Amino acid sequence: MPIIRKEAKDTLTAVEMDRGDVLEFTLRSGSVVRMELVSTKAEIFRTTLKQIKIEEHLARTDYRFKCRLKINGKEVELEREVSTQKSFYEPWTIGGLQIWFDAVDDIFEFLTDTHGGCRPGKHARFAIQDPTMRICPVKLHPWCPLPEPGLKIENCYTGEDCWMGAYFGTSAHGGLDINHPRGTPLWAPIDIHDHFFFNSLEMGHNNNRWRGIHHWENGAEWILQAHHMTSLAVPEHRPLKKGEQFANGAGVLSGEVDHSHFVFKIHDEGETILLDPWILFRQMYIEK
Ligand SMILES: [Zn+2]
Predict the structure, then answer these.
(1) pLDDT at residue 265 above 90?
(2) In Å, how far from its chain's centre is CA 15?
(3) CA of 133 to the centre of ligand 1 (A)
């Protein structure tokens, strides 16, 4: 049985697991929690598609995904829903772990992988933290003006483009879309040590895609991205302070409705793992 060993850090730990893998997670107290991935599953519970995996303009597909875990010997089942309002979920706290259940690979039985990277590298993907610790050691500044009273699935592009939502009923969406007018200010949620457009109209792409990088003292790197930017507000590569406006968001080739597309990745111990940007936005709502 393959064992993945991780130790609680002062930032969230992202982990991908195959069925049968065991995560041994050392808490800050020194005690070790053993979490085995027993099984995973996904199913559509509502779709307007005539044919699965064939995109249709404005079609929608909602699905559920589950996993069974054995945590310190005790079996639990976690279940998520996408892309209903429940896509904006709370993490579980079980057996001394705080668990964000991010994705299972089973969804690609009925979705395609053609709208930005989001497919897990293994059967399931999680973010884990010691519940006595925060997702990172600093408070997050809002990335954009936070819609009140909270994120609404209706305002994620045409109502389905949350993280891994089914774009046009078919393609897993590799980001979180938030609808807002062209030019909406975007701010650095944390200090950003380097930033730049990695795709731009000027380079011949069909989008202006911004990437900002933060290096934590513990060795982890957070990679934040915002796409469809109208323009940058500061020169590329100049470090940004938390809260500083870096761009005028939305507006560039943003399709049916102006929106910014947000992406969150953690690079640590030689791996880069994508996670739901909702994890960051949830924290911004808690701390605003
Ligand atoms: Zn998008």
Answers:
(1) yes
(2) 13
(3) 31
**The pLDDT of residue 116:** 83
pLDDT digits (tens, 9 = 90+) for 112-148: 998 888 999 999 999 999 999 999 999 999 999 999 9
Cα-to-centroid distance, 11 and ligand 1 (Å): 26
List the chain domain ranges: 3-129, 153-287
Rounded distance from Cα 78 to ligand 1 centre (Å) = 26
Superfamily the domain 153-287 falls into: Glucose Permease (Domain IIA) (2.70.70.10)
Taking the centre of ligand 1 as the mean of its atom positions, its distance from the CA of residue 173, in whole angstroms, is 7
Instruction: Tell me which long-range contacts 129-134 makes (C-beta under 8 A, separation of at least 24).
Output: 129/8, 129/12, 129/13, 129/91, 129/97, 129/98, 130/8, 130/27, 130/28, 130/96, 130/97, 130/98, 131/93, 131/96, 131/97, 131/98, 132/27, 132/28, 133/8, 133/10, 133/28, 134/10, 134/283
Concatenated DSSP letters for 49-61? -SSTT---TT--E
Note the pTM of the prediction, 2 decimals: 0.97
- Scan for tokens 């982990």, then name that residue: 15
CA of 161 to the centre of ligand 1 (A): 6
pLDDT at 253: 87
